[in-house]
Structures are given as structure tokens and as C-alpha cells.
Amino acid sequence: MSPTVTNRVKELRTGRGWTQQQLAEAVGVSRQSINSIECNRYIPSLPLALVFVRVFGCSTDHIFTLEK
Q1: What is the pLDDT of residues 29-42, one digit of tens each?
Q2: What is the pTM of this model?
């Protein structure tokens, strides 16, 4: 069984009072991509994950968790 990646993107986004569209514009993807990431249907690439780190101002480990 391969590990899965979970994330706190929705929690961090709503904590800032942002819509999915606002976050999408901040990281340079579509609103649909944000929805897929928040629902754990899509795991962002490393470059995109690093953009989330910049936008939220926290570590990758705080945003993304590798689950076994």
C-alpha cells in the first residue's frame, strides 16, 4: 500500500477568510484545482507545494502530511 498525502489547505485558507478563488489566484491555479487539493483528490507538485508554503508562510510539514 502506497503512502497518501493529506493537507491542511482548506483550514489555512478559511483561517485567512479567503475563498477558493482568492487562494487559486494567489498560487496561480484554477479554483477547481484548489477544490481537488482540499478534497485530497489531487496532490500538488513540489513547485506548487512550495508556492503554498510562501503564500501561507509556514513549513511544508505544517501544510502537507505523509500518511502511511
Answers
A1: 999 999 999 999 99
A2: 0.91
Q: Catalogue all structural domains in the chain, each as residue range(s) with its CATH number.
A: 4-67 (1.10.260.40)
3-56: pLDDT as tens digits: 799 999 999 999 999 999 999 999 999 999 999 999 999 999 999 999 999 999
Which amino acid is present at 59? S
Helices (H), 1-68: 9-15, 20-27, 31-38, 46-56, 60-63
Q: Roughly what angle, to the nearest 10 degrees, separates helices 20-27 and 31-38?
A: 110
HSE-up (13 A, CA, CB side) for residue 68: 0
Amino acid at 1: M
Cell numbers 485558507 label which residue? 13
